[in-house]
């Protein structure tokens, strides 16, 4: 039999998410020990492992909860899904409509609802990122004014931050700092990366944008994270940024991984990113790096 902590470690489903699934969909009935703690069988582990893989591939949990173990296995053997389900497409359309109509109340509700769903990688890539891109486009072509853009942006940040805070309550995984270097003011991308990591059970420390490297180093000395994640998307890279990244790469302890999210057009410039840094231009490789870090930390604990 497996404890809920063991199940969470083996499947990657954090404990709070697992409890929510059980309560909402009633597809598992774990036994209890003398202290009332949940105990899961080998069959439960098998089913939850398949559910975790399918949710990661983009299948909504509500569509999977009623399926048998055999049906889940069949789904696992199919090619990965590339199109949004009808409900997801409707959510995206509704979000874009709320942006287009400057409907702030509905926009807040829909962003909060999206951030509460249990497929964060797909939610970020296929719903939240396109929504954020649409806000930028509408502001650039003056379809919405600066006040509306600020309001939408602040709502977006607030709702994602609430989701991160909620997920963080059950965090048991690696410790990760998220920020942007000096003069890098774009924070939505790094915030969504933080949301993905929080959904994977990581202890996430979001420090906001525009953080001088000296302050980041001081915070790293205090928190002793397993990784630091930066966002560098400004095309106007300069000597100050190169100095900060060089200093961070040189002075950061070797046991702290350095990850940098950037745009493809920035990565393809001749800007000298630190050789020790792992670079990402999309969330998929970032997600895979998270899984590697989680496995590494689990192996260290088991030794």
Q: Under the CATH scheme, which class of the largest domain?
A: Alpha Beta
The quaternary structure here is single chain
Number of helices: 14
How do the strands line up in the largest sheet? Answer: 5-4-6-7-8
Strand content: 5-15%
Please state the average pLDDT score.
86
CATH superfamily annotation of the largest domain: Cobalamin-binding domain
In N-to-C order, the SSE pattern is EHHEEHHHHHHHEHEHEHEHEH
Number of domains: 3
CATH architecture of the largest domain: 3-Layer(aba) Sandwich
CATH fold assignment of the largest domain: Rossmann fold
Low-pLDDT windows of residues:
none
Helix content: 55-70%
Number of strands: 8
Shape designation:
globular
Q: Please state the structural category.
A: alpha/beta
Short description:
It contains 14 helices and eight strands.
Task: Tell me what you see in this structure.
- The protein is an alpha/beta fold and 303 residues long.
- The chain folds into three domains: 2-77, Orthogonal Bundle (Multidrug-efflux Transporter Regulator, Chain: A, Domain 2), CATH 1.10.1660.10; 86-168, Methionine synthase domain (Methyltransferase, Methionine Synthase (B12-binding Domains), Chain A, domain 1); 175-302, Cobalamin-binding domain (Rossmann fold, 3-Layer(aba) Sandwich).
- It contains 14 helices and eight strands.
- The protein has helices at residues 4-11, 15-25, 42-56, 61-64, 69-77, 86-100, 104-115, 120-140, 146-168, 188-199, 213-223, 239-251, 264-267, 283-302; strands spanning 2-3, 31-32, 38-40, 175-179, 203-206, 227-232, 257-262, 278-280.
- The strands form two sheets. Strands 5-4-6-7-8 form a five-stranded parallel β-sheet, sandwiched between helices. A three-stranded antiparallel β-sheet has the order 1-3-2.
- Strand 2 and strand 3 (38-40) form a beta hairpin.
- Helix 3 runs parallel beside helix 5.
- The longest helix is centred in the middle third of the chain and has 23 residues, at 146-168.
- It is globular, with a radius of gyration of 20 Å.
- The mean pLDDT is 86.
């Amino acid at each position: 039999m497996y404890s809920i902590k063991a199940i969470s470690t083996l499947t990657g489903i954090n404990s709070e998410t697992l409890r929510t699934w059980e309560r909402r969909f009633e597809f598992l009935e774990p036994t209890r020990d003398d202290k009332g703690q949940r105990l899961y069988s080998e069959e439960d582990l098998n089913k939850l492992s398949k559910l975790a893989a399918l949710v990661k591939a983009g299948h909504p949990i509500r569509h999977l909860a009623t399926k048998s173990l055999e049906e889940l296995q069949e789904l696992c053997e199919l090619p990965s899904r590339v199109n949004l389900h009808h409900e997801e497409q409707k959510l995206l359309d509704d979000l874009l409509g709320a942006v287009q109509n400057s409907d702030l109340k509905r926009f807040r509700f829909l962003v909060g609802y999206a951030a509460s769903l249990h497929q964060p990688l797909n939610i970020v890539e296929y719903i939240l990122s396109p929504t954020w891109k649409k806000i930028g486009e509408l502001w650039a072509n003056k379809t919405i004014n600066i006040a509306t853009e600020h309001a939408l942006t602040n709502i977006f940040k607030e709702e994602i931050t609430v989701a991160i805070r909620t997920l963080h309550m059950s965090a048991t995984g690696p410790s990760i700092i998220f920020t942007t270097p000096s003069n890098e003011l774009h924070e939505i991308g790094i915030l969504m990366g933080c949301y993905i990591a929080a959904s994977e059970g990581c202890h996430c420390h979001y420090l906001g944008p525009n953080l001088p490297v000296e302050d980041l180093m001081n915070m790293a000395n205090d928190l002793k994270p397993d990784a630091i994640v930066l966002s560098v998307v400004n095309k106007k890279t300069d000597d100050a940024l190169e100095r900060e990244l060089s200093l961070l790469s040189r002075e950061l302890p070797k046991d702290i991984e350095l990850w940098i999210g950037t745009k493809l057009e920035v990565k393809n410039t001749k800007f000298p990113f630190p050789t020790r840094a792992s670079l990402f231009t999309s969330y998929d490789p970032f997600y895979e790096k998270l899984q590697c870090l989680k496995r590494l930390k689990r192996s260290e604990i088991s030794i």
